[in-house]
Specification:
By secondary structure, the protein is an all-alpha fold. The chain folds into two domains: 141 residues, no CATH class; 33 residues. Helices cover 77% and strands 0% of the residues. The chain contains eight helices and no strands. α4 crosses α6. The longest helix is centred in the C-terminal third of the chain and has 34 residues. The protein is globular.
Amino acid sequence: MWDLLNNLAFGISVAATPQNLLLCLIGALVGTLIGVLPGLGPVATIAMLLPITYGLPPVGALIMLAGIYYGAMYGGSTTAILVNIPGESASVVTTLDGHQMALQGRAGPALAISAIGSFFAGCVATVVIAAAAAPLTSIALLFGPAEYFSLMVLGLIFAVVLAKGSVVKAIAMILV
């Protein structure tokens, strides 16, 4: 437990330097500006803006890419709330309540709820993933050839079950 807290504190101390905070701010701003465009999700935004990070130190580049990702995610919710067009697939649900709030003249609170909720969920998810990493790693190291084969067969069965149309065509697709 103390190792987890020490590692999180070390990570925050590295990320909280003025240069890294500035890179994160620039990344979030540019990511939000690109993420507002409908149809361009976070992955496409990172792919387009990847050359910006080539001359940066590795830690700063990763922090800027994280800022671009989170900015693009927030940009998608902005179009979902204001225009009722989700910017990417993760903001489809935001159109339901967010746009209704915007129609009632409460677009500002809807955008604030989206931003604060996203920030809080990202922080909690980071801590949960950091806490679950060690136990999941020990479980993953126990996997052998039989378990990997079983997982692959299960995935192929799911692909056949979820395929629409002819089951014979789905099985043929899986075999190919």
